[in-house]
Amino acid sequence: MTRAAVNPPLQLLVIGGGYTGQRFARAWRQLGNGALLTSRQAKAPSYPGSWLVFDPEIGAIPTLEELAGTTHVLVSLPPRANGEDPALLHLGELLRHLPLAWLGYLSTTGVYGDSGGAWVDESTPVAAAQGRSRARQQAEESWLESGLPVQIFRLPAIYGPHRSPFKALLAGESRLIHKPQQVFSRVHVDDIVGSLLHCQKQTASERPKLINVCDDYPCPSSETLGFAAHLLNCPLPRAERFGEIAPSLSAMARSFWAENRRASNHLLCQRLGYKLRYPSYRQGYLACLAEERGADWFGKGELGAAQSEKPSRSVT
Question: For the chain, does the N or the C end have fewer beta carbons within 10 angstroms?
């Protein structure tokens, strides 16, 4: 019997091949498995990966034949404003005919609502106040009721290479906003990827239905922006008080600042045993800048020192 017959490649379907989905598909392929990704538009032949068009608005729905052999699914699409999930609505029945071992759904820690800066974990009742978060909450419920092997991954602010503060800082487009006691949780995209890979390997009976994926260190955005400016050796923009500028912010920006919470990763890191690659923004920002500017941009000594140094716990 051949090795391929004993341990055949797994086939991943990423519904919504955006920033995180592409990063996950790349890591999946590096393990010797296959991956398909969906997009609303056909990708050029030179575009990396194997792509299917999925756009229900124009009737472009992958067929069962195109999805044949899919064993794992990652859903990275936002729900509609009414909480209806287009992936579940238009692909759910097809997915039930596939040999699925795991389906990961990327949600948001916004479903917890505002905790006033207190810690929230998977046992915290959901209390989404923002429209987008309420839609996510409804989509979570629909997926969990689907009968598919679903795990919900609740994510805070996502950053990573080319989605970091550096470009805006250098262009003079960053804003240093001060709101007393405000903190944000965040996570590097590669820790999302690592968490997904870690969790899908567990048996179905071991998998929690809900998991927060975040780093160890919720903190003010002023702290992270200050560190980014330090790395670039560039000045910070002038500080602005949130109360004075709130009326001038977009509705999305105001909703971002309206809620204050610390998301706990205890379940993921302590109970499930996942080890974060980037426990705080310090290690993560250094890795982002190294990837954006070339792996040798930092000397190993400086990178190692920064990785071992704990951020201060100051809250502004």
Answer: N
Cβ atoms within 10 Å, residue 267: 17
Q: What gap in Å lies between CA 41 and CA 188, rounded to an integer?
A: 27
List, for residues 35-70, the tens digit of each pLDDT value: 999 999 877 666 667 999 999 999 999 999 999 999
CA nearest to 109, candidates 80, 140, 85, 84:
140
> Does the pLDDT of residue 106 top 60, yes or no?
yes
**By three-state DSSP, how is residue 260 classified?**
coil
Ramachandran angles phi, psi of 155, nearest 5°: -110, 140
Q: How far apart are CA 234 and CA 121, in angstroms?
A: 37
Residues 311 and 223 sit within 8 Å (Cβ to Cβ): yes
| pLDDT, the chain, mean | 90
Tokens in use for 102? 């795991």
Q: H helices of 15-151, where?
A: 19-30, 64-67, 86-95, 131-144
